[in-house]
Amino acid sequence: MASAEFKELKILIMGVDKKVSDFSQQLEKVEHEVKTDVNVLKTKYDESQLEITSLRQDFTELEQGVAVTRQLFSQNLNIEQRKANAIPIANAHRVPTRGSGPKPIIVRFIHYGDKQLIMSSAHNLKGSQIRILDDLPVSMKEERFLLSHVAYTIRKKRKIANTYSRCWGTYDT
Q: What domain of life does the native source organism fall in (predicted)?
């Protein structure tokens, strides 16, 4: 009689173990889906952000990121002062970096069209060290960094010359 009860308990425990493992697998799937959704949301959230690098940094307490970016828009990007001041900016701040040199400024625009206006005017910065880039999530920046090294080694191995087009990006010749 004790052995029958023991077998029943053993079967019951095995069933509970199976259910626990099934729940843990489901939990892992949900965690993966949530992480994927978070990355997608970060990417969509960052669509209205720019990263401005190599902009001279004045270490004054009163420096405001918004004022510096508006000055950049009017002076360097050749956007008229009235229009540059009318662009609504949600936030602009410097980001800490490793090493010395100017810290990049992250600018978040309220309207995506304003970001596109700035990006289309970025060709006026040619010859200066200032760059305007899309601000991407860290994970995407890391992946692009790794892919750039792979692309470089492939181009070097195949002895492919690189040419750049302002409209279409890179293409092989």
A: Eukaryota
CA–CA gap between residue 8 and residue 2 (Å, rounded): 10
Dihedral sign for Cα atoms in the order 122, 126, 130, 131: positive
pTM, to two decimals: 0.55
pLDDT tens digits along 83-127? 988 999 888 888 887 877 778 888 888 888 888 999 898 888 888
**Tokens encoding 166:** 């302002």
Across the chain, mean pLDDT equals 80
In the chain, domain spans: 46-136, 137-173
As its CATH architecture, domain 46-136 has 2-Layer Sandwich (3.30)
Its sign, for the CA torsion 41, 45, 46, 48, is positive
Report CA-CA distances (Å) from 7 to 2, 13, 36, 118, 122.
9, 10, 44, 73, 75
Quote the CA–CA distance of 108 and 110 in Å, as a whole number.
7
Is the per-residue pLDDT at 43 higher than 70?
Answer: no
